[in-house]
Amino acid sequence: MEKKNCLILALDVTDRENALRIANEVSEYVDSIKVGYPLVLGEGLGIVKELAELAPVIADFKVADIPNTDRLICEQVFKAGADAVITHGFTGRDSLDSCVKVAEEYGRDVYVVTEMSHPGGVEFFRPVAETIAQMAADAGATGVVAPATRPERVRDIRKIIGNDLHIISPGVGAQGGSAADVINAGADWVIVGRSIYNSDSPADAAMKICNDMKC
Ligand code: NUP
């Protein structure tokens, strides 16, 4: 993904009309559009292709299965037109290797969740976040997902992965994180959902976040 605005839209609306309206309104401010279960379960995987005409799509399916099932999921995601997939890492190296292999075949990207951004994200992830980050680097993933709600953790994770991997960071706005703080801590992109798509003017909200970050 090309870095222009350091902003990824999390498009967690559940209907096509709203999704396309919001995506069109903010497309000049975002480097990518992240779709996940809410929109894909609401409208089907075909929405990925439509959105991909506006911006590269990251499929946030937090893939977490055995290697063979992960392979099948990633193949479907990339065939549908997604530029990248988000996977979990706790399923182990063989599962992650399977996703990275498919991504390489299709020329696409894999981001691995290290520690989640919500309060419960510290319960099980905290003790293994660094190990997962190191595994993502060793496996040749494109980058990791790390919490904008805890910029100090983004700093820790950056130290582990160095500068070869990207950090994409959710938790800005609705979850309490600051875009500028987490970019200063070493994130490459922030991922923002509700603060943009629930705004009366998604474009203004996106523009304001871009201005705050001075990316
Ligand atoms: O740790 C994570 N936290 C998180 O919020 C990993 C994620 N993938 N996300 C996703 O980022 C979450 O599912 C949602 O799509 C987006 C944040 O949305 P919002 O809190 O800005 O509305």
What report would you give on this structure?
The protein is α/β, with parallel strands linked by helices. It has one domain (7-212): TIM Barrel, CATH 3.20.20. It has helices spanning 16-26, 37-43, 46-52, 67-79, 93-106, 121-124, 129-139, 151-161, 179-184, 194-197, 202-213, and strands at 7-10, 32-36, 57-63, 84-87, 109-113, 143-145, 166-170, 189-192. It has an 8-stranded parallel β-barrel, surrounded by 6 helices. α4 packs parallel to α5. The chain is globular and about 45 Å long. The relative contact order is 0.15.
Specify the CATH architecture: Alpha-Beta Barrel
Mean pLDDT score, rounded?
97
The dominant shape is globular
Which class do the helix and strand fractions yield?
alpha/beta
Largest beta-sheet characterization: 8 strands, parallel, barrel
Helix content: 40-55%
What ligands are attached or bound here?
6-aminouridine 5'-monophosphate
CATH superfamily heading: Aldolase class I
Order of secondary-structure elements: EHEHHEHEHEHHEHEHEHH
CATH structural class: Alpha Beta
Q: How many separate domains?
A: 1
